[in-house]
Specification:
Four copies of one chain form a homotetramer. By secondary structure, chain A is α/β, with parallel strands linked by helices. The first copy, chain A, has two domains: 163 residues, Rossmann fold (3-Layer(aba) Sandwich); 194 residues, 2-Layer Sandwich (Dihydrodipicolinate Reductase, domain 2). Chain A is 36% helix and 21% strand. The first copy, chain A, contains twelve helices and 14 strands. In chain A, strands 13-12-11-10-6-9-8-7-14 form a nine-stranded mixed sheet. In chain A, a hairpin with a 3-residue loop joins strand 10 and strand 11. In chain A, helix 4 packs parallel to helix 5 and helix 9 crosses helix 12. Chain A is globular. Chains A and D meet through strand 6, helix 7, strand 7, strand 8 and strand 9 of A and strand 6, helix 7, strand 7, strand 8 and strand 9 of D.
């Protein structure tokens, strides 16, 4: 039972950030939560400016996440935040998330969960130990038609899955190849902030997560070819990966930030013995079902014939496009079910959102890719 | 300056309604407003149930809009709602909107504004007299790429506009042709609730509004062929209209609810002497610019080269789909600029949302279409 | 039984013409016919030049169609042409076709068949009297997926058809609106050569023919709005038409030559009580079947599940695009079945190509449209 | 100067074959050649039946290619075939082509040219020695928009090319995974007839050739993961390949025959520092040019702004789809320029068709892929 709005806190997401506002809109879309506190930047002035623009109570706009933990913890249970959303650059996720968990707060965290597999495992253990909700925003799994694809794979409608092609090309770094000066200061290219990977850590792991969510396939070994085209990038900006999944399926996964002219066309194609499937993030309200007989059926969001998960994930009926924010909001909505149970001291329900376990697999994937890349694309077993 | 969230009230939009929840999500998407009161149904129990699910203060869940006006008016200025969203069936818009305006509240109202041109004019006069904000949710004008299309037409980039084709086919009533029993009780088919028109009043006026918003063209005369395929429908469910716009452009506008298998593909094509344009609601983040030289350029949302209005209307960068709710929210965001000015007693800014004037034109269009339809498609001058 | 290639003659189609080469490629694509004679232009030098480029025997390159008839008639039956393809501008079709039929030749003729309904009827009577084959190249009916659409309508798979939207916008005249000088001398704008109609006669009748071929629907009455945007055009270059089909279906048909940036997107959408269909000429190898339940199936050419007519009309398997020429060649291939029967003195088989009867309906349609256009879009009964 | 039709002979292509009829239609589409002789099958009865259906002179329907060479060679120069098209399964190409070349005939040969790199080199040497025309039908290079892509890459419009993704998934073997019995006897799976590769040799080399034709990039080394999903297949039916091109570009090339529900969607995406390009075989008349600024321009066939090669390769103007056969015919048309020069004893012009050198590279590619595949995807230098 929902008898009140959840109180949300945020770390990161100052004015001008990209993902912070997305989290805020997604978190409050359904009227289930309200942002009441935040440490929006490591720069106190910037944090306060953001709090002001968000019309927050100035007393709950903090100068640091540590201050936030300290002061929120002292508020009465009926006032303090129920959960915190962490939307800072990668390298700080581990410390911040750990601190909030230890202080008894539920956590929603942007991906990648940490910058090392070791940290990921530690954090995962901490999550289990504390019993708090931890939701990782692999947001693409929130799209209704992704859920329909998962349903069809899970029900065996494709037969045995033999091949998966997942791709995530972006082009926004292409211009930096000839004008590297424009890229100066980009944290995604800085191992100290981004971790050991640029392209794979930023978008490649979305692709891996999407495959796993839809098909259930787990990487057995992989063979990665990583390149850096932007000179001042200390990390890779293009990665092409061959994959052997457990059970025999073959895969191609690639991610790129130098594919000039591409926006955000994450896509996945899954081929079984009975059917093929295709889903494209830039046209997210459709799922294309390919029949070997030679016709192809476009399922569309918001219709009655879809599985309950797909139907439930659509906020609008057919023909009225749900977008990125709505998919993102589905991660939050599922997290809220857990958070409400946690608050009420009830048994944790099964919630359809990525967890710290997905975070562990994501970091294992990144480290395996980097290892293979360093070894001239040698087949490398998935770390665990 | 935004120093607080606006307080929103709602009339209509009980549990199970389609458009009410859309208004709620759109209104609060940007964190600028909060729903605090409502009369969600003419059935008090249903209203209270809805208030409960929305976690409202039970004291502000009202049994009728009249009660809502009476009680909200007595609240201190710092508590009472700043505006009300009216999302009831068509026939009640006029009374409800008039009552709230007279009581000093700003109004957001779903379309069609009223069920007669006379009412529309009366309401428009009332809006002007009260000086309150009145926003009409012709939501399709909220899409970023619609604003880009408007910009390009306005700047003369198309040359002189000669031809417009706008279409709004839906198929959800097609099944009622053979199974009319399933349609029993549908208010859209009942002139007492829907007004004099079903298909044109529900969706055709969106098409007319879209043409006017993008091109600035005004209907001079039209020639309408209206049909009813669903037997128990007392109004039309298919309308095909030829249009002469002022200044010489020719148009086709059609709306249909019996186009089996269509979801919500409102689309517009505009042809000038220099360029053609195409926009499609089901794929809303793109605008297709057709060059007579034989190439076609797809503009996409969230990019720097777009006009300020299109850029400002996108919540997310390129490749991250904005959807129906975000477009809808743009109507609210613009209305809020007016409402904040009204509250602050400042000069009303120019706000980019449909107004009561659009409501008047919409009703004039409906009545002209009905008149032409009754006269066996005689060319009929646009009423005014 | 095919024991020899048919001998083809051609009237019109000199070097530089558009449709002449299409006929030549289409007629010979399957190795069933060979071009052996021609009067390619009313300008003898141009005719001879064309014959030379086509590597014809100079003795069979004629200065006029009259000379061609005279000389070919004197050749022994084993040498003279079996049929003639008439690809001249509209106004000469009647005389040329009549002369060849009277001289005992089979005829393939481009559309529109004649420039008046009276001529069309006369020619149709002559065809029946002579018993010769007369094929009219409404080539769009040759596409495999158009045949599948026809099959599905004919079998009642759509239920009762209630609505048809057929459109044929082109943009190539848009530039002439501001630069009329570039259009000087265009025969399509000259009533003496084109007949009474430009846009409808050139492309609108393809649209009408396509509707009739696919759905079997016949126009009962229509209401036409015709415009001329190119100043030096003596005929219409934009036509928007509302249609009442016999049996109650409603339709919109429009054709335009001033829709800037459009190439050749003839398309048709048919809506029945059970299903909707869509076919687009610029993407011709697919047929889109729209189910009211909210999914849509794309049938594609060259697959086993299609009807025999669609399968037979594809020259290549799935995924290997058939194009305009192949569709055109299907008209010829069907005509050849008739021509071979005629030569063999056998009973005429049922051949799937447009005939002189389609020519009569086409001219009736043109004249009805023009009559309605002249009477300020009055509903006008289809002439017959 | 074309003063006569070329005389064409064919080896292979009996009734029921797929590619033989394509060659016949393509070869004669422009009226430049006529099929006059053939050895259509190693089964004499089948060869004669085919000759009969093609209405050939029975004396020139041969029981074997050896008989064809012997008898055609004895015909007077003005009667014997000018060239022969070889459309038999792979393993026989080498012997047949060699024999015809040695006997003084020009050759058009289907791909792959031979079944070993050694044979390919020998054949290439023979071609050079004899001075005859040898055209290899990598037909996809015949599409107009592929030529436009090549033009743009060659002119540097993309800047430096950094990434290429080329894919060729088919699904027609997917059904054999669960029903292998249906695949019994398929020559493509038999190393004795197909050579050492199934999927790569059949379609992968089209992909390699397409990349090279468009971009000019040459494979430096590659890393291949080959799989066999159809149990009775003795060769691979799925191949995923990472590529390092000379000069630093990275690539992914994959070909598959078990991608359920895919028809023939060969596609290529090329990313440079300035622009991206995309072309898709199933929608061949468009080229998509992706600008990093965030818009994308669709070039379409048959327009004036295209490069001369693209314009010349289109048989029809804009909006009138050219298909697979027309692209195929462009290979022939270019070969004819060479053949006519060869016959006339003139200097060989530069002809835009794949040659025996492409055949050598194709076989080198296949053998390199197989070698890498056998060595657990080790990076393997391109053989030469």
């Amino acid at each position: 039972m929902k008898n009140r709005r959840l109180r949300m806190g945020m770390v990161g997401g100052a004015v001008g950030a990209f993902i912070g506002p997305v989290h805020r809109m997604a978190a409050t879309l359904d009227g289930e939560a309200e942002l009441v506190a935040g440490a929006f930047s490591s720069n106190p002035a910037k944090s306060r400016k953001t709090g002001g623009e968000l019309m927050l109570d100035p007393r709950r706009t903090y100068d640091s996440y540590r201050e936030m933990i300290a002061k929120e913890s002292k508020l009465p249970p009926g006032e303090r935040v129920d959960f915190v959303s962490i939307v800072t650059p990668n390298a700080s996720h581990f410390d911040i998330a750990s601190a909030f968990l230890k202080a008894g707060f539920n956590v929603v965290c942007d991906k990648p969960m940490t910058t090392s597999l070791k940290q990921a495992k530690d954090l995962h253990r901490l999550v289990r130990k504390t019993g708090k909700v931890f939701a990782l925003t692999h947001n693409y799994t929130g799209y209704p038609m992704v859920k329909q694809a998962r349903h069809m794979c899970g029900k065996g409608m494709l037969g045995k899955i033999n091949k998966v092609v997942v791709e995530y090309p972006q082009g926004w770094m292409a211009g930096f190849i000839t004008n590297p000066g424009n890229a100066i200061g980009m944290w995604r290219m800085d191992p100290k902030i981004a971790g050991g990977s640029c392209c794979i850590g930023d978008i490649g792991i979305h692709a891996e997560n999407l495959v796993r969510y839809i098909t259930g396939l787990e990487v057995e070994e992989l063979c990665a070819d990583l390149s850096t085209f932007v000179k001042i990038n200390k990390l890779e900006d293009d990665g092409n990966i061959l994959i052997h999944y457990k059970g025999g399926a073959r895969g191609i996964l690639y991610a790129s930030q130098i594919s000039a002219g591409e926006e955000n066309p994450l896509s996945i194609r899954v081929y079984g013995t009975k059917l093929g499937l295709e889903w494209r993030q830039e046209d997210p309200n459709y799922l294309h079902v390919k029949d070997p007989a030679g016709y192809r059926t476009r399922y569309s969001k918001g219709n009655d014939y879809l599985c309950p998960e797909a139907k439930g994930a659509a906020r609008l009926i057919w023909g009225h496009p749900d977008g990125f924010i709505e998919a993102f909001a589905n991660i939050y909505r599922e997290a809220y079910r857990g958070i409400r149970a946690e608050i009420a001291g009830k048994r944790m329900p099964v919630c359809d959102h990525p967890t710290s376990l997905d975070g562990v697999v994501g970091l294992a994937f990144i480290e395996t890719v980097l290892a293979s890349g360093r070894s001239r694309s040698k087949w490398t077993r998935m770390k665990s």
